[in-house]
Specification:
80 residues; 3 strands; 25% strand
């Protein structure tokens, strides 16, 4: 059985979290899921920063998170 690695990066500042998410997706070629609270615009802000810093990153999913008042976003490398 494959395990899905989990890292709690909440203690890092936002730009460091963006860097780690983007590098896992674009350098390691992995699908990365992250959860934000549902504060208005927060998930969109993360996505905008990821797209600016990591051109070509692909948003696979954005929707309700696993618990109330959260947003789940999945990103990955380009398909080609």
């Amino acid at each position: 059985m494959n395990t899905i690695p989990y890292e709690d990066i909440a203690d890092n500042d936002e730009d460091e979290r963006i860097r780690q998410i983007g590098e896992k997706a674009m350098v390691s070629k992995l699908t990365v899921g992250f959860i934000t609270d549902s504060e208005e615009g927060k998930a969109d802000r993360y996505i905008s920063k990821l797209m600016a810093r990591f051109p070509g990153i692909r948003v696979i999913y954005q929707g309700d998170g696993p618990v109330a008042e959260t947003v789940l976003v999945k990103v990955g490398p380009p398909l080609n």
